[in-house]
Specification:
globular; alpha+beta; about 350 residues; 4 strands; 4-stranded antiparallel sheet; 2 domains
Length: about 350
């Protein structure tokens, strides 16, 4: 059993129960794989029993365990830590070799996760999930790594809070709410395209809010890594996109041209253009019908002298325009948000 109190007030508790198909397999998995992640008794006492994993925060790619306070966040942190402890300095393996290294190639592995929160004088469970496809999560982490995706950069970029709420006493939890929901979808192999579109749009609005307030910030975001994660993740879990990778690339390219078209319009100040271009992004997001989407693309083409790929026009239809539109918007905002970010953030973002 693994557990974590998200803070020293102990007003919430995350619990994780590992199970397998028989006790022998469970004992071996816990002893050889999960056991080394458990904090020893002296460390537990020193840290006031706040959490019994990981054994050490030092050199953990995802960062401090205390940065993750939600049930889903911590479950992923546990699995990602185990994956890295097994794969450390090993050459990339295929999926079968990966499962053998993890000791679960021919074994069932699942994790029941629960969360309880303070209620009167006791703790009341209010979240429960049985993650029976743990092998999928390991395979997903592995495949994303093979495709050059930096999960640590993405996870750190997913913290967000409205600037006007940054002084709220509950800021720490609020800042991680989106990431908790996002990670829950990733653990279950669900599409995150709608979530990421909303995230990029929220960042856009918040960046405009703080544009003339030097003392405020929405936090560092690696937008290139976020869009790379979204692109590769959807290719893995979304069958519609999996079968149309070329169309996905075309949509991303169109979005980038729209973003640059907005920023470069009439050779004005790029940040001023970013602010004035918001109406085009809003109109594109509101295009809830296939014909509306084509109308907005035509409007943008005319306004910013954009070249539209013939393959896009020939292959977009009522069934696929929705996800194509989302990739176009995300890619456009990837350009605009990077421009609106503080210079130091843009420098870091463009290091990749």
């Amino acid at each position: 059993c693994f557990y974590q109190y998200p803070n020293k007030l102990r007003d919430a508790l995350n619990v994780y129960l590992v199970y397998s198909d028989n006790l022998t397999n469970l004992h071996d998995i816990l002893r050889t794989k999960f056991g080394p992640l458990t904090r020893p008794a002296d460390v537990l006492r020193q840290q006031e029993y706040v959490a019994n994993f990981p054994q050490s925060d030092e050199n953990n790619p995802l960062g401090r365990s205390g940065d993750f306070i939600g049930r889903n966040e911590n479950l992923f942190y546990l699995l990602f830590t185990l994956y890295n402890s097994v794969m450390d300095k090993r050459p990339l393996a295929d999926n079968r070799e990966l499962m053998q290294l993890l000791g679960i190639a021919d074994r069932t592995l699942g994790i029941v996760s629960m969360r309880a929160e303070s209620f009167a004088a006791t703790m009341r469970p209010n979240q429960f999930e049985n993650l029976h496809h743990v092998k999928f999560v390991f395979a997903l982490i592995h495949k994303l790594g093979q495709r050059g995706v930096s999960i640590p950069y993405v996870w750190q970029s997913l913290k967000i809070i409205k600037p006007s709420l940054q002084s709220n006493r509950d800021r720490y939890r609020m800042e991680r709410q989106f990431r908790e929901k996002f990670v829950g979808k990733v653990l279950n192999g669900q599409s995150i395209l709608t979530d990421m579109e909303s995230f990029f749009n929220d960042c856009y609005g918040y960046l405009l809010d703080v544009l003339n307030e030097p003392g405020k910030s929405i936090g560092f975001k690696r937008y290139n890594d976020l869009i790379n994660f979204t692109t590769q993740y959807e290719l893995i879990v979304n069958q519609n996109i999996m079968q149309n990778e070329e169309l996905q690339k075309i949509a991303l390219g169109l979005g980038a041209r729209i973003g640059q078209g907005i920023l470069s319009y009439n050779q004005n100040d790029r940040k001023t253009n970013a602010r004035q271009g918001r109406k085009y992004i809003v109109a594109l997001r509101k295009a809830n019908q296939y014909v509306d989407f084509l109308e907005q693309i035509s409007r943008l083409q005319s306004r910013f002298s954009l070249g539209i790929d013939r393959d896009l026009l020939e292959n977009v239809n009522d069934e696929n325009y929705g996800w194509i539109k989302q990739f176009v918007i995300i890619s456009a905002l990837n350009q605009i948000n990077a421009e609106l970010s503080p210079k130091s953030d843009k420098t870091k973002t463009n290091e990749n």
